[in-house]
Amino acid sequence: MADSLVKLPPESGGETWQVKLKEVLDKANDVLLGKDKEIRLAITSMVAGGHLLIEDVPGVGKTTLVYLLSHLMGLDLKRIQFTNDLLPGDILGTMVFHKESESFEFKKGPIFGQLILADELNRATPKTQSALLQCMEEGRVTVEGQEFQLDDPFLIVATQNPFFQVGTFQLPESQLDRFFMSLHLDFPAREFEKKILLQSETRELIDGLKSVLNASDVVDIREQIKSVIVSDILLEYLLDLLEKGRSELEEGAYLSPRAGKDLIQGARAYAFLEGRDYVVPDDIQQVAPYILGHRLGGGKGVVYGQNLIKDLIKKVPVGT
């Protein structure tokens, strides 16, 4: 797919970024073997400015993917290990009283970073999970009535264990809707697993790579993506998908207007990675299962929801 890229016009500034994103993809593929599609989608989510949810069993590379992309994209990574005794203050921060000055000072929590790895998010209680709602929606937090702005870029990549595993709490619909995209890595194909067994320590491989981008670059790319053209025909096609999903799927009520906006932004980002300044139907079809799926999956898992959308795409024709 990458070899058939149509280059953006040089005057757009997008060609340089497209080449660098291709380099990020290639270097990531050298470390996380056999996961080109998943890496491509994760990059799409990150440059679109969307939060990412990765669901799978332990040991298939969820955390590795986050470390790898944060390193290649030059983003400051903060990791929060979610457990059932974690409190909102452990994430957001707390007011600390200084006896000398007789005043309170806000001590920032680990949520203040550019890329936040929320590891095993669904092992925390609903109360603790809810601490992320304002962060994900507004890019700020409120503590003791005071608002604090988060970094730009600010991205959350959360991992969660499958719903059937012991000690998990299902993410509420309001939380799922704030995730831009969801992925399921699954086990590697046999040929790649053999190479993985002989591979050097993953963290050593990642540390040995040079960053391709930095935080400022990611912000610039996000601005470039906003100018990618979506024709009225494709907007109508997208609305047809949402309308049919809402009317025919039992879980269709969870396809919110925010889901539609995310789908537009995801299609633009995917087109940008493919080297185009306009969206084609395939861009929407490629990202739709991963942008809409977790909203439908709920307690049945992201793969269940993704499969619903893949079936739905087959039933909705593209307008002419």
Q: How do the helices and strands line up, and which of them pair or pack?
A:
Layout: H1 14-31, H2 36-47, E1 52-55, H3 62-72, E2 77-81, H4 88-92, E3 93-98, E4 103-108, E5 115-119, H5 126-129, H6 133-138, E6 140-143, E7 146-149, E8 155-160, H7 173-176, E9 181-183, H8 190-198, H9 202-207, H10 215-226, H11 232-248, H12 257-273, H13 281-297, H14 302-315
Parallel strand pairs: 1-8, 1-9, 2-5, 5-8
Antiparallel strand pairs: 3-4, 6-7
Helix pairs in contact: 1-2, 1-3, 2-12, 10-12, 12-13, 13-14
> CATH architecture, please?
3-Layer(aba) Sandwich
CATH topology descriptor: Rossmann fold
Low-confidence stretches: 1-12
Distance between the termini: 25 Å
What overall form do the CA principal axes indicate? globular
Number of helices: 14
Structural class designation: alpha/beta
